[in-house]
Specification:
The chain is α+β, with helices and mostly antiparallel strands. The chain is built from three helices and four strands, in the order αααββββ.
Length: about 130
């Protein structure tokens, strides 16, 4: 095989392999976007868990320590969105219960926060993690 034939074969192989790369470019970009979104999701979970740990430490000291966050808005600013909001009957009135817990640890500790119909803080309840077997 001559030098010219070798160069021609190398150029042909380079062109064919480049086309294959371009053919799968969409899939490669989609995988890159998926990896980036996974990184953002992980960062969000870590931030929410950090805020929950702050709430947990405060709630373990008793409901009085949370009274400075007297309204929903200030509570949300400090501790973020709860996992779940539900109406509950408590002391002959309807309150809104907010559940906070770790984002992916379902059987860990929990904090329930209660607000009245005007959006004012009423009480909180700390529930320790269930013992593991």
């Amino acid at each position: 095989m001559t030098f010219l034939q070798t160069v021609f074969i190398l150029i042909f192989l380079l062109a064919v392999s480049s086309c294959a790369k371009l053919e799968h470019l969409d899939e490669a970009l989609m995988l890159k976007d998926y990896a980036s979104s996974q990184d953002a999701t992980l960062a969000s979970v870590k931030e929410k868990d950090r805020k929950f740990e702050e709430l947990l430490a405060t709630a373990q000291k008793g409901p009085e320590t949370l009274k400075r966050y007297s309204e929903k808005k200030s509570f949300l600013e400090r501790f973020g969105e709860p996992i779940l909001k539900t109406p509950v009957e408590r002391d002959d009135r309807t309150l809104e219960s907010w559940l906070y817990r770790y984002q992916v640890k379902y059987f860990g500790p929990k904090v329930y926060v209660f607000f009245d119909d005007k959006g004012r803080f009423v009480d909180c309840e700390y529930v320790p993690a269930a013992p593991t077997r």
